[in-house]
Amino acid sequence: MIACTQARSWFGAYWDDEITQAEREALEAHFTGCPACRTEYEGLAHTLELVASLPRHEASPELLEHTIARVRRVAVAPDRLRATPRPAWVPLAAAATLLIVGAGLLAPWLGSRGRVDGPVASRTASPREPQLVRVSAGAPAVDATSQGALATATPASALVDSLIDHSADVDFVLDPVHVSRGRMVSNPLKQRAQGQQAVITF
Amino acid sequence: MKTPMGPDREPSTLAILSLSDEDLMARVGEDDERAFTELVRRYQGRVTNLVSRVLNDRECADDLAQEVFIRVFVHRRNYRRGSKLSTWVFTIAANLAKNEIRRRVRRRNWFSLDALQEVLKDSAAVLADPTEGRDRSMEREQLQNELGKAIATIPEKYRFSLVLRDVEGLAYEEIAEVLGIPGGTVRSRINRARSMLKRKLQPLMRRERS
């Protein structure tokens, strides 16, 4: 006679009728001599009978109609199965956000200019071209705007940087975020930035 | 979807109805709406029952079944002619049902084992109630409800094998294909699931016998 563990390992196959004739005979012989295994198998058989007796859940009458309606929409717009139309306010909101963020970033720079150059109104004027305020040592001061020919008469190399009016200029100092072991540390550049230097943090 | 063509080229509705599953799917691949409608008709019951039993959620089963057929349509050209259509459809259904189970687990909105034990306790009490005039069919319905809940508490990987085998009656080889696991694993999972279910139902069955 086969052992109980062997017999129990065949229960499933016996129920599914996927057992060889020899195994079937051995199992049935075991059942006659082992009431415990027989009871165990009866319990399993009863459970599976209950499962088999479960009523089938039928599809709702609307399933077919709804499915066909959705498939028609899918067929019109392939690969956009779950795509939902983007609301009209999304681009507007994105533009407004960008505007606000941009204004926020520029605010310190604009404030700095305002303190140096005067009223805010002057900052809204269109950008001025660099103006020649004086020539190199020994040469007479010349208004570059009224003497446009000067630029051509004087070699470019002769126009030293000091000839340009830098009063409206701003130094841009790129401020690399200094990260050490996952924590941002104070940036030495920031402390050194003075006067009209604008620090751009990225 | 194809609009109906001339009667010389378009098969009659009767012809569509008599097509084999594979031929029907071939026509679906050619965007034949009538063929797709027939495919949904043929499988809607089995798909709904499968997902309903796996999730133990009749309400959700319709939505999920609809999703299954949409996937069938979207992937209609991926179907390999020669493979069994029912296996392919069940594979899609099983995958969507698994996703749904995971979504529910994430939402912590799933029937817990503790809750089941409570229900089983209550149910056992109800079944043991010798109140005169209690309708036998109501008891049966109650038992089936508890059975559905008990199936739903079996761990997912065993549950799918059990439902595909003992509810839907698929062959072991088909289950292996649907779940993408070896045949030996299918057998062991089914055995394990049956043992679990038997253990869970023992209190109910004892009462029922008495």
Characteristics of this structure?
heterodimer; A: 202 residues; mainly alpha; two-stranded parallel ribbon; two-stranded antiparallel sheet; 4 strands; 49% helix; B: 210 residues; 10 helices
Largest interface: A-B, 35 and 43 residues
Strands ordered across the widest β-sheet of chain A: 1-4
Q: Distance between termini of chain A?
A: 81 Å
**What's the total count of β strands of chain A?**
4
Overall shape of chain B: it is elongated
DSSP, total strands of chain B: 0
Largest sheet of chain B: none
Please give the radius of gyration of chain A in angstroms. 44 Å
- State mean pLDDT of chain B (0 to 100 scale): 83
What does this structure look like?
- The complex is a heterodimer of chains A (202) and B (210).
- By secondary structure, chain A is mainly α.
- Chain A has helices spanning 4-9, 11-15, 21-33, 35-52, 62-76, 89-117, 120-123, 150-153, 188-192; strands at 172-175, 179-180, 183-184, 198-201.
- In chain A, strands 1-4 form a two-stranded parallel sheet. A two-stranded antiparallel ribbon of chain A has the order 2-3.
- Mean pLDDT of chain A is 70; it is low at 116-123 and 135-154.
- Chain B contains 10 helices and no strands.
- Chain B has helices at residues 13-17, 21-29, 33-55, 58-74, 85-106, 113-128, 136-152, 156-167, 172-179, 183-209.
- Chain B starts with 12 loop residues before the first helix and ends with a helix.
- Classes of the chains: A mainly alpha (202), B mainly alpha (210).
- Chain A binds chain B through residues 9, 11-13, 16, 18, 43-44, 46-48, 50-60, 62-64, 66-68, 70-72, 74-75, 78, 81, and chain B through 1, 31, 33, 36-37, 40-41, 44-45, 47-49, 52-53, 58, 61-62, 65-66, 69-70, 73-74, 143-144, 147-148, 151, 162, 165-167, 172, 187, 190-191, 194-195, 197-198, 201-202, 205.
